[in-house]
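Possible race condition, two jobs.
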Amino acid sequence: MNFNLLGQHHRLIIFTFCMIICTFVTTFSLGQLKDVATYDFADLLGEGGIAAVTLMWITVILMSRPAGQLTNYLVVGLVFMHISVLADFLDEFLFYPPEQLWITAYESVPAPIGMLLTTYGLYQWHKEQVSINQQLKKREQSFREHQSIDFITGLYNGQFMKAQIERMIERTSAKKPILTLNC
């Protein structure tokens, strides 16, 4: 991972922090704290773990990819999934009055949007990797071909010629048995 790439992503980092802060402000301004006895610790662990992992994925992508449209799709999609899971995690601590039940939409709606954006980004990333792999394969093949050619004369070098002769000897000896005379 390259920490230098983080400098290319100021807008995405600001967007991520703004969405997280917006989620905290929205949920805590609308809800009232629950009694600790009502906490579902399995949900806290599961939903908190998912929120932490999506935040780690965002960080890894920002540290691994240059700025661009593909990175935007991946990060924005993961941010939408993250805020959905974060809101779901925070509701384990909060009780919402009946007139504030729209907050459940805040927990639910961003996740599928984020999944669609991330899926599209992953598809584009796959296409990018296929293209890069093809370029690397061509470059390696060209390197291997040019490795056998003498730079000055433009002819095949001695190692290549020796290997070719050895291959020819192996082929001819495998096809024709050696003649012996019995006296």
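Job #2 (started ~2 s after job #1):
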Amino acid sequence: MSNLARKLQQQQQQQSHVQPQPKHEPSKKASPGRLTPVEKILGLLFAVFLTVLSAQLISSSAGLYQMNKDIGQLETEIMQQERKNQDLENQVSELSRYERIMAKAKELGLKLDENNVKLVEGH
């Protein structure tokens, strides 16, 4: 039996030493430091998208700035025109006072005839 045991032991040792080692085939996947063409295209598309989006944002901001500037100028013009209108209204009030009209009429040689006065309703 000792022969038989030795043969069995030798066979087991040979089997353990002869185990096929897995072959290392170069993988088709990219190495960790390299990008695949699809990843490069996606990266390029993303960069183009960000560039277009940034340009549109800058353009919109410039448009809003210009519009706000125009609005400010218009508000200034409106305030100036309102001041002019108020000054003109004050002048109309001043020039249409009864005392001034009577003084101007006397200066021009006109006389007040109470019988010939007609009441005019104004606004």
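The chain has three helices and no strands.
Logs attached separately.
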